[in-house]
Amino acid sequence: MEANDLLKKVRKIEIKSRSLSQNMFAGVYHTAFKGRGVMFSEVREYQPGDDVRDIDWNVTARQNRPFVKVYEEDRELTMMLMIDVSGSEKFGAIAGPKRDMMAEIAATLAFSSIANNDKVGVIFFSDRVEKFIPPKKGKSHILLIIREILEIQPQGHGTDIDVALQFLNKAIKKHCSAFLLSDFIDESDYYQSMSVANRKHELAAIQVYDERDTKLPDVGLLRVKDLESGKEIWVDTSLPSARQMYERQWYDYKQRVGSITSRCGVDYISIRTDKDFVKSLLEMFNRRALR
User: Which residue, 116, 28, 21, 41, is CA-closest to 76?
Assistant: First the structure.
């Protein structure tokens, strides 16, 4: 991608994602991801509506009038974005490459995070960990992340979610919120590492897929290339059996990720590239906020 085109794309994503984070996501993100707990701050005189369970009975007895304990949230969090940059993320037959939507979602999450004064880091992965950007704060750091998503040239082409989750578990020692963005076209066994990750952190899985991942059009003889293995085959899409086999394979992938995330207790949403991701993200945040 030419430098000017890249800058324009980064700027476009920045404008959209910052607007979304400021107007819709920052507040609900703050509520959904509450941090590590609360710390005692001070005592003050009781006011109508205060929770009686917060009354400091020792101070109340000394002052002969009710006082309550005041707490403040120990909230600073680290957000880790785990972004699939394998060959299949370049695919986009309907609304552009899956990687472009991942960049928008990641940017929206990141701007929501820094609006709450949190740090953001990234793990880029394919069938290996391609790059690790340690958590930092600030707008310039987020713009760097967006550029990397759009520009990174991975050495691997396949997908290994287990490798990425294992890296997260080893590299990030403190509790964090982690978002795994992938199409989840992956046959690796990542149940154990996902279970460990969700016990240590607050993990959410976001599946980004193209409509053509789910079904083949009936257009006769079609040459199909696997962007991860590089293998090319001819498929007669006029055959119902060929289209059904393709659809079945996608259904199996989707069922598998749904089953694994459910067993691990991980929030999971699935977003098609030609649909608006805002509603799905908000629904996920709101579910977390109600827990």
Answer: 116
